[in-house]
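quick one: zinc ion bound model?
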Amino acid sequence: MAGRRLTQQQQGRIQRLQDRRRHRSDQAIPEDEADLGPEQAGLAITNHGATVMVEDNEGRLQRCSVRQNLGRLACGDQVIWQVSGPAGGVVTAVVERRSLLTRPDFQGQPRPVAANLDAVVVVLAPEPNFSGDLIDRYLVAIAAIGVQGLLVLNKHDLLDEAALASLLNRLEPYHRMAYPLLPVSSRTSYGLDDLRAWLRGRTSLLAGQSGVGKSSLIKALLPDRDIRIQALSAATGHGAHTTSASTLYHLPGGGDLIDTPGVRSFELGEIRLRDLDRGFADIAPYLGRCRFSDCRHLREPDCAVQVAVKRGEIALRRLDSYQQLRAALETAGKSG
Ligand SMILES: Nc1nc2c(ncn2[C@@H]2O[C@H](COP(=O)(O)OP(=O)(O)O)[C@@H](O)[C@H]2O)c(=O)[nH]1
Ligand SMILES: [Mg+2]
Ligand SMILES: [Zn+2]
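yep, here:
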């Protein structure tokens, strides 16, 4: 699918190039259009509006402009680029994205942030404490963009056995839904090898409340991040600006980590009512089994969801959270 679309785009471009060459003798052609190098694959590492840093197949950074018709690129985009001069190139095509995280811009329009993600790591900690509702919202948002969710419980070093057991008990509904849960400590490095193993072979980003330790984890996972930032700053000429833009890093043990400073606590965003069930894999199997097709699972007779709660198959807290989110989405008019 992705290949076919790209091929069509490429065919279109080749056709246009040939047309231009035919007219070359009698028409002025912009220099960058006429003298492009061969098409090469690359990976968008970071995006500064008009300029995108593309990593080429040899791992070198190429400063590229972007063809206007491509729209805004996201960090993690796989691109086709062509050398357009001594100092860089131009991105001429974007491979179809397998997933896309967007964030509303100042006009409320969705702006691409991270493309081709495989997973979002939700970082939790005993301090600041987390609410189940917050986790549920993250998981709905994660399910809506079609990527995997991983729960990481950071600051393991602050927990004695009883406190850890109590937190794990609170997280039990997620464990039942087969979300992996990794207790770690960026301070003592406890569990970090397990986290590295999980991240290997995936493109991930870290999300979570302020103060849970995301920056500390990124530091632990990416020992040469500062060197990379310096290289990016030098290559873009944007100086320290790079640190505030979403950036893709290669993890030393394999896998990629996209650092998105602005969206670490991303909220519901583009979520619609129909996304809700995907984020509630514990409740979804019972929906549609109630006596009334428009059952709201409150006090209706023969409600399959309420029966499942009574049997302990659905945690009551999860149903409350589902009802709250549903009401919020209906109020916001996102019933589509
Ligand atoms: N005890 C303990 N503190 C941690 C750990 N990881 C981070 N912290 C502390 O938690 C605070 C917030 O960390 P930070 O990485 O800035 O969190 P962020 O806001 O999610 O990026 C800092 O004071 C860190 O030193 C950990 O594993 N154990
Ligand atoms: Mg931070
Ligand atoms: Zn019902």
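The longest helix spans residues 2-23.
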